[in-house]
Amino acid sequence: MQGEHVALYPGPRACIFESSRAPMKRRWIAAATVATAGVAVTIVANSNAAITASRTFPSSTSTTALHVVLHTIARPTNLAPFVAPGLTGEGVYRPAGRTVQGHSAIFTTTIRPLDNPTTVAGVAWIDPNLLSARLYSGSLSPGGFFWKYTAPISRSASQTLVAAFSGGFLLRDSRGGYLSEGHLVAPLVNGAASIVIYKNGSMTVGQWGRDVSMNSSVVAVRQNLTLLVDHGVPVVGLPTSDISKWGVALNAIVDTPRSALGVTASGALVYVEGEMNIVDLARILVRAGARRAMVLDMNPLWPLFSTYLPATPTGYVTPANGKDLTPTMIQTPTRFFETQYARDFVTLSAR
Question: Is the domain of 203 the same as that of 312?
Fold first, then answer.
């Protein structure tokens, strides 16, 4: 195992096994388990192959293909409805989007908000062990024309795309900072609710300076307001009638479309969207298991979460094989493939 390098940052658990078909006679087998922060990797190699850090492990003397087996998080428990009797299928999670190594990486369901039961909110449960996150930036949000990753999603990126969702408020309204691709567009704010993405594609949500902070593994930070859910409960003082503190509601409509992202105790991510007040948004996040959660974009035109299911697990995604999380979303899966789309968003791709 001499010369092998393991990066010390949060990431998925994986096992790597030799898939070489060469005869095993008179060859030794070496196995090692490497534990890092959030990573457990078992590597099996033979005496004729050198190991380097890539998914297919080439050697100058021989080539041995190693297979990376990703460990999944246990699928989510169905959600109990707030309103009785529950609708047929309400709160029942179903797989959504392309599979990753035969596993569903995203499960979705709908649930009626307690204070607005005439509509449904969408909930997406996301297994970050199977998916790699990337922040895409726009000329309007956060601003600038120097981005490598910006709309539209490229054809090459679409071959592994599983889902995408819209980001937060415009920076002037976010009360936070923005970092991506080495560009600090706005200073990061201590105490701000933050999406943090690491070099290995892992993503989490937390309070900047307490749960998450800058280190050499951080590649992107998107801040928006302060945490909506903390320690598994809604933050104190949420008013059901709010139309400004937690984002300015269009036409002062309390039950405007709102969205949010949270992280569970297991590290799974949960995304929620629907027409509801800020208290209902927090309630649904907690019901879905969020320990920490933050507000994302709001009002009719902006919240969007789309999953994509091409004809084959390794097929190219197109808007035609995309699906919105909720039937009330105005934008469609086409949005992330439009050249004119100028706002930030996050993609989730198969590892």
Answer: yes
The verdict on whether omega for the bond into residue 58 sits within 30 degrees of 0, i.e. cis, is: no
Peptide bond into 142 cis (omega under 30): yes
- Give the integer Cα–Cα distance in Å for 123 and 287: 10
Amino acid identity of 32?
Answer: A
Exposed/middle/buried for 98, CB within 10 Å: 0-12, 13-18, 19+?
Answer: buried
Is residue 285 domain-shared with residue 147, that is, in the same domain? yes
CA angle 175–181–184, rounded 5-degree value: 35
155 and 64 co-located in one domain: no
What does the pLDDT look like over 10-41, one tens digit per residue?
Answer: 555 554 443 333 333 333 333 333 433 343 33
Q: Give the neighbor-by-neighbor strand order of the sheet with 203-207.
A: 183-186, 178-180, 218-223, 193-198, 203-207
- Give the C-alpha distances (Å, rounded to integers) separating 185 from 134, 136, 166, 169, 278: 17, 13, 18, 14, 28
Find, among 238, 214, 216, the residue nearest to 226 by Cα.
238
Verify that 58 and 118 share a domain, yes or no.
Answer: no
Q: Which domain holds residue 224?
A: 94-350
In a domain, 131, yes or no: yes
Range with lowest mean pLDDT among 19-33, 73-87, 235-249, 302-316: 19-33
Whether residues 46 and 111 share a domain: the answer is: no
